[in-house]
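Anyone up for a design puzzle?
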């Protein structure tokens, strides 16, 4: 499930926690890394469960309207296309999905106010109106609808952010990734695939092992960055001698340290790939000027370390 981009972000965050609290042991940093990885999959499950929660909200509204003393014609004969969507029924009847949601207690039951507001937002959109107006019914159309919901209703949603913050401090930054995986899941269901809990690491989905294992990659990266942090810090300081050490931004130091650890620990990964990855991460977690700072320092220090034999790269495209 987790690709190397998000694993690099998690490695960066684990090392940042150590930089802010040097009393943390390697075991504690690795434990926080594992917890962060598991949290992303839990967030995916919670967000996927909104399919049934939102469908139930629509059902409850229809049932309440039909019980009115004098319901309208539309209330007596409602359009049931959404409440009978095949994605919700597929997940609701899947024993593995029901079991994992029950076991993890990832329920939307206490967030009825949010679900009411969400449903009002969805049903006001043209994409939903077009879906309801079409006489055609298919699981592919149902999947396409939920993809639009996942793509348009949750990011930058202050109410959802509040819910996620209350549930886990590890969730907010992973929302976009979890939503992307939810879209993939409903599209898979539309193709007739059976839902199954995704392996935690992307490489595990293709049964890759050894050096190609994403778990081995992120574990080795965090260990190297943790154990070499003081050395990397000194190299960073030496590279900017006119800067007071106190003026160095901790986030930038950690990003550069991760980049140096990766360059030194993975001879098979091209230098440009490592540099570009941490420069991209800096766009989201550091200052506007950090991109050029991280890029320049990583490039300079890696070249120096290669000249001194501390980093070895061989093969076409690795330099």
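Challenge accepted. My sequence:
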């Amino acid at each position: 499930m987790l690709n190397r981009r998000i694993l690099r972000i998690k490695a960066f965050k684990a090392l940042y926690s150590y930089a802010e609290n040097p009393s943390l042991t390697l075991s504690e940093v690795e434990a926080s890394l594992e917890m962060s990885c598991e949290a992303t999959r839990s967030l995916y499950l919670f967000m996927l469960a909104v399919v049934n929660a939102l469908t139930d909200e629509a059902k409850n509204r229809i049932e309440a309207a039909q019980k009115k003393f004098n319901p309208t014609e539309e209330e007596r004969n409602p359009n049931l296309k959404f409440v009978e969507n095949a994605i919700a029924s597929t997940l609701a009847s899947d024993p593995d999905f029901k079991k994992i949601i029950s076991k993890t207690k990832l329920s939307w039951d206490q967030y009825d106010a949010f679900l009411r507001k969400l449903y009002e937002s969805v049903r006001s959109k043209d994409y939903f109106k077009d879906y309801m107006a079409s006489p055609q019914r298919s699981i592919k159309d149902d999947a396409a609808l939920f993809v639009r919901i996942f793509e348009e209703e949750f990011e930058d949603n202050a109410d959802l952010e509040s819910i996620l913050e209350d549930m886990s401090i590890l969730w907010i930054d992973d929302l976009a990734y979890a939503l992307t995986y939810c879209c993939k899941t409903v599209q898979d269901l539309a193709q007739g695939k059976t839902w199954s809990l995704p392996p935690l690491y992307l490489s595990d989905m293709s049964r890759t092992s050894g050096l190609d294992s994403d778990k081995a990659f992120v574990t080795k990266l965090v260990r190297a960055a943790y154990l070499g942090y003081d050395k990397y810090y000194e190299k960073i300081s030496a590279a900017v001698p006119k800067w007071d050490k106190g003026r160095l931004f901790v986030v930038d130091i950690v990003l550069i340290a991760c980049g140096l650890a990766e360059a030194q620990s993975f001879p098979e990964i091209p230098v440009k790939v490592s540099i570009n990855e941490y420069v991209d991460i800096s766009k989201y977690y550091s200052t506007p000027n950090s991109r050029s700072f991280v890029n320049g320092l990583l490039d300079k220090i890696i070249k120096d370390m290669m000249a001194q034999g501390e980093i070895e790269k061989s093969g076409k495209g690795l330099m």
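A detail worth pointing out: The chain has a mean pLDDT of 93.
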